[in-house]
Amino acid sequence: YHFYNAVRMTLNQLLVELDGFEQNEGIVVICATNFPQSLDKALVRPGRLDKTIVVPLPDINGRYEILKMYSSKIILSKDVDLHVLSRRTVGMTGADLKNILNIAAIKCSVEGKKAVDMNAIEHSFDRVVVGLQRKSPLNDEEKNITAYHEGGHTLVNFYTNGSDPLFIFFFYFLKRS
C-alpha cells in the first residue's frame, strides 16, 4: 500500500512538472524504460512524453563494434577473436559486453598476465551469462530440471531461422546462481 502511494505521488508530481513547461523554454525531457506497456496513459498522452524511439539490442555488427571499442583500452592476446565473441553474445547489451571484457581484464591482471586471453573471456562470459558456480551438489530432480532447461535453449536456437549454429558452444550441467 505504501509503495503504491509513493508511485502515485511520484507520477502525479512528474505530470505537474511536465505540464509546467512552456513551449518556448527549450527543454527536452528524455526518459527510458524497458517496460513501455506499463507506462501510465496520462504520462504518454500528446504534449507530454508522446514521442517514442525504440533502441534495439545491437546486432552482430553492432556487438563487434562495441567489443572493438571497449577492447581498444586493453591488451588482447592473439587468441582472442572478436568476431567469434560477437556471434556468441546474441541478446547482450553494450553494458554486458563491457562487463565481459572488464571481468576478463581484472582476472588476467590478478593472475599477472600482460594480455587478456580467450580463457579469461570465456570465464567472464560464463559469469555474466549464467552466474557464479555454486558449490553445493545437484540432487537428481535439479539435474533433470537443469537438463530440460538447457536442452530447451539448445533446441530453440537450433530451430530458429537465421540462428547461428556456432552459438551452441557448450552445454552446462553445473548449478549456477
Structural description of this entry:
The longest helix is centred in the last third of the chain and has 20 residues, at 140-159. The chain is 49% helix and 0% strand. Helix 2 (60-71) runs parallel beside helix 4 (94-110). It has 177 residues and is mainly alpha-helical. It folds into 3 domains: 1-55, no CATH class; 57-131, Helicase, Ruva Protein, domain 3, CATH 1.10.8.60; 136-177, no CATH class.
Produce a short descriptive summary.
With 177 residues, the protein is an all-alpha fold. The protein has helices at residues 2-19, 60-71, 82-88, 94-110, 118-130, 140-159. It is built from 6 helices and no strands.
Report the CATH architecture of the largest domain. Answer: Orthogonal Bundle
Would you count the extended β strands for me? 0
> Whole-number radius of gyration?
22 Å
- Name the beta content range: under 5%
The pLDDT mean sits at 84
Q: Give the distance, in angstroms, between the N- and C-terminal Cα atoms.
A: 31 Å
Shape: extended
CATH topology type of the largest domain = Helicase, Ruva Protein, domain 3
Q: Can you identify the CATH class of the largest domain?
A: Mainly Alpha
Q: What structural class results from the helix and strand content?
A: mainly alpha
* Number of self-contained structural domains: 3
Number of helical segments with 4 or more residues: 6
Which sheet architecture does the biggest sheet show?
none
Order of helices and strands: HHHHHH
Helical residues, percent = 40-55%
Q: Enumerate the spans where pLDDT stays under 50 for 5 or more consecutive residues.
A: none
